[in-house]
Amino acid sequence: MQYKVKVTVLDKKVYPELQEQYCADPAAGACPCYQVGDEFVFERYGEADDFWHMGLNTLKQTAGQEAFAAGGSAFPHCSEAWDAIARYIYTGLQGGAIMRGWMNDERVMITCCSDGTRPVIFKIQRLDYLACYIEGIGCDRCRDKIRSALTGISGVNEVVFRDAFAEIYVEQEIPDSLIQAVVESCGEYKVTKID
Quick one: DSSP state of residue 164? Predict the structure, then answer.
């Protein structure tokens, strides 16, 4: 089993009365670093190791298209946010329970940065997947056939094809033998490895 972590910005708050009283810029306003709806995906498989770069280039979707135009996707997380979310991201990338007993799903945590006048609220979610290496795929029709068969397995949420392998996103443990049997029943395909 492999793991990714998706970080989603759920909300941004601002407390103008506190900013007026305590900030050097009394009209600082909301956090300029994040937009509600921003999604970051952290990977740690093969050559990818996004955690050790503080999320550099992990922004996958943003409501603020100006962030992409300004190169926002190339920036790591701000230090206040990173201090608050890094431990949950690292735990998820290792396959651990992000917040057992507090959240209704141990793969999820809702948290915020430590800026007391303009906090950002994050949803941190561990994504479980199998990296399945398949020989014999020649076209999109092959991928569609395999994707359809795999998503028919209870507990499989999504199948995404990468250059060298397929990512099979799961909600629960699924035996490698079942994955292999389903893929190979689709035609002249051979599963060579499942991580």
Answer: S
105-146 residue pLDDT tens: 999 999 999 999 999 999 999 999 999 999 999 999 999 999
Question: What residues contact residue 109 under an 8 Å CB cut-off, 6+ apart?
Answer: 88, 98, 99, 102, 103, 123, 124
Interior/surface letters 46-84, b for 16+ CB within 10 angstroms, e for the rest: eeeebbeebbeebbeebeeeebeeeebbebebbebbeeb
pTM for the model stands at 0.88
What are 4's strand-pairing partners?
127
Phi, psi (5° rounding) for residue 5? -130, 125
**Angstrom distance (rounded) from CA 134 to CA 152:** 18
For residue 115 the two structure tokens come to 């800026």
Question: Among residues 169, 172, 171, 189, which one has the least CA distance to residue 181?
Answer: 189
Q: Give the start-to-end residue ranges of the domains of the chain.
A: 2-127, 129-194
Q: What are phi and psi of 140, to 5 degrees?
A: -65, -30
Domain 129-194 class in CATH: alpha beta
For residue range 137-192, list pLDDT tens digits in order.
Answer: 999 999 999 999 999 999 999 999 998 999 999 999 999 999 999 999 999 999 99
**Phi, psi at residue 2, to the nearest 5°?**
-120, 165
